[in-house]
Amino acid sequence: MLFVGLDDTDNLESRGTGHLARQIAAALAADYELLGVTRHQLLLDPRVRCTRNNSCAAIALEENGNADLDDVLRRVRAMMLDDFQPGSDPGLCVARKVPGAIVDFGRRAKERLVTLPEAWSLAESYGIRLAGLGGDRSGVIGALAAVGLAATGEDGRYVLVGTCRELTGLQPVEALLAAGVVAVETADGGAVTEGLVQTDKLRPARRDGRPVAVVEWAGDHWEPLKLD
Q1: Among candidates 105, 110, 88, which has minimal Cα distance to 44?
Q2: 122: left (phi over 0), alpha (psi -120 to 50) or beta
Q3: Contact, 195 vs 185, CB < 8 A?
Q4: Looking at the whole model, is its pTM more than 0.90?
Q5: Is 9 left (phi over 0), alpha (psi -120 to 50) or beta?
Q6: Does residue 131 register a pLDDT over 90?
Q7: Per-position b or e across 86-117, b if 16+ CB within 10 A of its CB
Q8: Cα dist. 85→20, 48, 134 in Å?
Q9: How many CB atoms are located within 10 Å of the residue 62 CB?
Q10: How far is CA 107 from CA 56, 127, 226, in A?
Q11: Which residue segments constitute the domains of the chain, with CATH numbers given?
Q12: pLDDT at residue 67, as a whole number
């Protein structure tokens, strides 16, 4: 599996990082199987300078192990620079095998302050491709964290998977499964196999490396939860 992490590509007037990640994912899907794009929430703290909610994005791709990671980095770098937003501090990370130290970095970034030197040092130590593309390059923190968190298979929610974004209104469980969700469950893990689900802005959780729609009963239909 190949992971591409992005962060801090936007400003208050532009589209968010998730939007750009989906565009890049669509371009990469011409050469790789797109497994999805996920949003990952990092620490919310007034000491952390961010555009909106301090989230980052990861693109997950299936490949045969022969992908040229430097070429992927160059391609994504070019697309990010073409869409550079004034005032942003974009960061990009590309990795195939994600070591535990990078996973730990991502988990720490959710709970406490991590630093730019720490991100650069970890990437250098483990041969992770990391690039700062403008501004103070602080986006490399979130880009590295996104790769680490996506690699756990247990963090974040999908902003793109299958055809889920095409679903609207109340849909039967079967429609979600056909669109790319692997399971519909309650928060306590109970299987949901029938009934209608509100699919407007459906954002399945990433659980066990798969998209799972977590829902709660709303009286006459299932309402999806947005989980980090």
Answers
A1: 110
A2: alpha
A3: no
A4: yes
A5: alpha
A6: yes
A7: eebbbbbbbbeebbeebbebbebbbeeebebe
A8: 11, 19, 9
A9: 10
A10: 13, 20, 19
A11: 2-157 (3.30.70.2200), 162-224 (no CATH)
A12: 87
Contacts of 27 (CB under 8 A, 6+ apart): 75, 79
Contact 164, 202 (CB under 8 A): yes
Would you say 34 and 61 are in contact if contact means Cβ atoms under 8 Å apart? yes
As given in the structure block, the two tokens for residue 167 are 């679903």
- CA atoms of 11 and 24, how far apart (whole Å): 18
CB of 200 within 8 A of CB of 169? yes
- Cα separation values, 226 from 149, 183, 202, Å: 17, 15, 8
183-224 tens-digit pLDDT: 999 999 999 999 999 999 899 999 999 999 999 999 999 999
Between the two ends of the chain, the Cα-to-Cα distance in Å is: 22
DSSP state at residue 136? T
- pLDDT 10s digits, 156-183: 999 999 999 999 999 999 999 999 999 9
Other Cβ atoms closer than 10 A to 63: 15
